[in-house]
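Minutes, project check-in
Item: structure for the 123-residue chain
Input as provided by the requester:
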Amino acid sequence: MFFNLECPGCVSRAVPFLKKLVVNYGNRLYILMIHTSFGHKIYSRDEVLPQLLYFAEHFAALPFSVALDLSGELAQSYEILGTPHWLIFCEGKLLRSIYGSQDNAQLRLAYALEECLEASARD
């Protein structure tokens, strides 16, 4: 999931949803959050890391890895629309690209994850 700490939808809906995915799916998923500057103010690594650490320790207790896309180039290469933006990879291929954190985005994400896990179980 591409996210930014200045994105209210990321912090209030997307991160809690990711934490539910960890509980529901456990080690059947690999979850990576990518903090991107795309569409937001560009921070240096030294500026963003303390914010991320504070967030992780005091608010979210993040049970997954977090990467940095400081320039926003990675987000642009995947043509994300903004944050939060989810990419679901299944067997190494991009299965779905879903923008948003509202209920409909979460539902589409859940369906895509089930589709991927069912396909993986058949193989």
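Outcome recorded: The mean pLDDT is 88.
No further action items on this chain.
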